[in-house]
């Protein structure tokens, strides 16, 4: 993990007026490399069979809910690099009011993402699950649930360890 130094002078003084980066609490991949490698493998298999654009949008939406700045940085950059529009990424935080930017299938995926991500509100409602099941066949739905679960796990690592956003390059972890 590196510190963003582009905006500091030779003495290390911030020259932009922006707040300083918060320090990373723990470089967990370094200290738990087998867990990190297993998460990479899990992430790879969770994406199989899903539309890559939808996969990135789901990752962005869960990361918005979980306030994971590191994952937001990564997945918005990956989505843009894959051709996703700025407009659809920006509107994702308010997808319910911006429904016309997305397909019904994407909307069902976002609704399921929110229900799975915010389990503190209760169980995943039957109507949310059924709406998703109406747009995804069972193997694809299983993959979508896996993808939502995996990004939530990544978010928990990112938020807890305070991984720093702003340094990711699209495709860096591919």
Write a structural description.
It is globular, with a radius of gyration of 17 Å. The protein is built from 8 helices and no strands. Helix content is 57%, strand content 0%. The two termini are 17 Å apart.
Write the layout of secondary structure elements.
Layout: H1 28-31, H2 33-46, H3 52-66, H4 69-81, H5 86-91, H6 104-117, H7 126-135, H8 138-161
Helix pairs in contact: 2-8, 3-4, 3-6, 3-8, 6-7, 6-8
List the main descriptive attributes of the protein structure presented here.
mainly alpha; 174 residues; 8 helices
Shape: globular
Oligomerization: single chain
Strand content: under 5%
Could you tell me the radius of gyration in angstroms?
Answer: 17 Å
Structural class: mainly alpha
Q: Note poorly predicted spans.
A: 1-5
For the secondary structure, the number of strands is 0
Run of helices and strands: HHHHHHHH
Largest sheet: none
N/C terminus separation: 17 Å
The helix tally amounts to 8
Integer average pLDDT: 91
Q: Which percent range fits the helix content? A: 55-70%
Task: Please summarize what this structure is.
The chain is mainly alpha-helical and 174 residues long.
């Amino acid at each position: 993990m590196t510190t963003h130094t582009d905006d500091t002078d030779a003495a290390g003084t911030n020259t932009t007026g922006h707040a300083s980066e918060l320090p990373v609490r723990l470089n967990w991949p370094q200290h738990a490399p087998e867990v990190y490698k297993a998460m990479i493998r899990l992430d790879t298999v969770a994406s199989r069979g899903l539309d890559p654009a939808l996969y990135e949008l789901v990752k962005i939406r869960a990361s918005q809910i979980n306030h994971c700045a590191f994952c937001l940085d990564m997945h918005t950059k990956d989505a843009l690099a894959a051709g996703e529009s700025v407009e659809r990424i920006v509107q994702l935080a308010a997808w319910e009011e911006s429904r016309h930017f997305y397909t019904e299938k994407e909307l069902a995926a976002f609704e399921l993402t929110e229900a799975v991500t915010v389990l503190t509100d209760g169980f995943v409602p039957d109507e949310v699950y059924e709406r998703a099941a109406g747009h995804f066949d069972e193997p694809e739905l299983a993959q979508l649930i896996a993808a939502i679960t995996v990004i939530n796990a990544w978010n928990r690592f990112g938020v807890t360890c305070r991984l720093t956003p702003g340094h990711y390059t699209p495709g860096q972890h591919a």
